[in-house]
Write a structure and sequence with these properties.
alpha/beta; TIM Barrel; 2 domains; eight-stranded parallel barrel; 34% helix; binds phosphoenolpyruvate; binds manganese (II) ion; 2-keto-3-deoxy-D-arabino-heptulosonate-7-phosphate synthase I beta; aldehyde-lyase activity; 3-deoxy-7-phosphoheptulonate synthase activity; DAHP_syn_2; DAHP1/KDSA
């Protein structure tokens, strides 16, 4: 951390601040220039609150050199993390593809889609049982019945299930029933939920909040990890911008940025990013090209009658073609691969 003092800040005030900071177990180097005096802090500054330093009337500016997240930081864990879900890996060399409907609607629907996406090469089944809808009058999901139907689809296909949790009081049930617990964009900063999920060992799919920065996403991962659960998979799902042609704006630059900052695997959700079914395929390919570890894609066997997000769901047939193209893209070697050597 670097602290720039105001021009002509009294020497005694600089010393008072220096001594205060030294009590936080850091070394403080004072460099005096012609007009400005700069304090350079060396050591672990993670517990020092910059806002308190900024409140000092003699301080001009504060710059953090270190990031606030430690466990999610690549600096302290140079190798890419791989999350293992019953032998299926997210973050390894292979693409991890999660596919399925926005919501579980019936046994026939979820089992049929699960069989279809499995045939095309998906490694996980998605399906919302508890749905975070903007309107309380929209379909809210089949809730616990939805979890039961997902379990049937898993039994029929062997695909591990990925589904969203909305409340900490469902954690026990989710730990028992599902393979990957999804934290949706709207709950990315539900810190109490994150802390409770951190006490489990379940893989967590943490989606980026609608208006969250990359650092805020990594801080949310840190909440989970700081409680002991290191099985975190990040997900870029589009963010709110001034552009309203698409539902959100897919932030593809988040992939290389996160790969540089963190060792955690990151996947992309082109369905919620675009909100338009015909954009899912090109965005999915782009995400793989820039080095995403996987994708989560909404697939529905009857998008026009889907109870949720039909407009952004692709049919099993289109999904099958997309999987063929993605495999070709991976084989071509064009896909960006990240390691400590290149980030
Ligand atoms: C979802 O994946 O079903 C979902 C609601 O996504 P998000 O939280 O990204 O909006
Ligand atoms: Mn959806």
């Amino acid at each position: 951390m670097v602290i720039i003092m105001k021009p002509h800040a009294p020497k005694e005030e600089i010393l008072v601040l220096k001594h205060r900071l030294e009590k936080e177990n850091v070394q403080v180097n004072v460099s005096e220039g012609q007009d400005y005096c700069v304090l350079g802090l060396i050591g672990d500054t993670s517990k020092i609150e910059t806002t308190k330093i900024q409140a000092n009337v003699y301080v001009e500016d504060v710059h953090k050199v270190q990031q606030n997240y430690k466990l999610a930081n690549r600096l302290f864990h140079p190798d890419n993390s791989v999350v293992n879900i019953d032998g299926r890996k997210v973050g390894g060399n292979e693409l991890a593809i999660i596919a399925g409907p926005c919501s579980v609607e019936s046994e026939e629907q979820i089992v049929e889609i699960a069989k279809d996406v499995k045939k095309s090469g998906a490694k996980f089944l998605r399906g919302g049982a508890f749905k975070p809808r903007t309107s309380p009058y929209s379909f809210q999901g089949l809730r616990t019945e939805g979890l039961e139907l997902l379990k049937i689809a898993r039994q029929e296909t062997g695909l591990p299930i990925v589904t969203e949790i909305m409340s900490a009081n469902m954690i026990e049930k989710f730990v028992e029933d599902v393979d990957v617990i999804q934290v949706g964009a709207r709950n990315m900063q539900n810190f109490e939920l994150l802390k409770e999920l951190g006490k489990t060992k379940k893989p967590i799919l943490l989606k980026r909040g609608l208006s969250a920065t990359i650092e805020e996403l990594l801080m949310s991962a840190e909440y989970i990890m700081s409680e002991g659960n290191e099985n975190v998979i990040l997900c870029e799902r589009g963010i709110r911008t001034f552009e309203n042609y698409t539902r959100n704006t897919l932030d593809l630059s988040a992939i290389p940025a996160i790969k540089k900052l963190s060792h955690l695997p990151i996947i992309v959700d082109p369905s919620h990013a675009a909100g338009l079914w015909w954009m899912v395929e090109p965005l999915a390919k782009a995400a793989v090209a820039v080095g995403a570890d996987g994708l989560i894609i909404e697939v529905h066997n009857d998008p026009q009658n889907a109870l949720c997000d039909g407009q952004q769901s692709i049919t099993p047939n289109r999904f099958d073609n997309l999987m063929g193209d993605l495999n070709k893209l991976v084989e071509s070697g064009i896909r960006q691969v990240y390691s400590t050597a290149n980030v």
